[in-house]
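From the pipeline queue, job 12 of 40. The input is one protein chain; the requested action is below.

Action: predict structure.
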Amino acid sequence: MARFFRFARMLARHSSPYTLISQPPVDPDDAYNDDGVAVAPTPTVTVLRGSIQPLSARWLQLDGGKYTEDDRALYTLATHQNGDVIRYQGRTYKVDGEEDRPDYTDFNKYLLKWVSTP
């Protein structure tokens, strides 16, 4: 029988706010204004809580150097999808993967790739 680790209370106590920026799906009927100019949909901004930590040395060595010291791990009770955009302390990250362990824990762990600012 698998053990279930309950860290939600500890995570809530040691978490800080971060921002999820969601791009709504593009509606082809609303993609252009009356002058025929393309209109980008307004992103939705949601403030969530979690713990964003540097990656361990083990993660930095995985996948032939796919992850760098600028990348992070996110521990949260929220659910994210690959490609979600996260803003934290003035830096932008994209959710790049999930460490799948729902049978063992009551929180989610995601890998965040740093996105260079334009």
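Job complete. The beta strands are 16-22, 44-54, 72-76, 85-88, 91-99, 108-115.
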